[in-house]
Amino acid sequence: MSKKTPVHAELTQIRDMLLKGRSFLLTSHARPDGDSLGSQLALAAALRQLGKQVRIINSDPAPDLYAFLPDLSTIEIVASVEDRFDAVVVLECSDLSRAGVAGLEGRPLINIDHHPGNAMYGDINWHDVSACACAEMVFELVTALGAHLTPAMATHVYVAILTDTGSFRHANITARTFEICRQIAETGIDPAGVAAHVYNNGSLGRLRLTGVLLDRMQLEHQRRIAVLAVNDAMLTEVGCDPDDLEGIVNLPLAAQRVRAVVFMKETDEGLRVSLRSKEGIDVRQVAVSFGGGGHLNAAGFTVEHPAPDTRGQILARVASVITDSDE
Ligand code: AMP
Ligand code: MN
Question: CB of 66 within 8 A of CB of 37?
Answer without folding.
Answer: yes
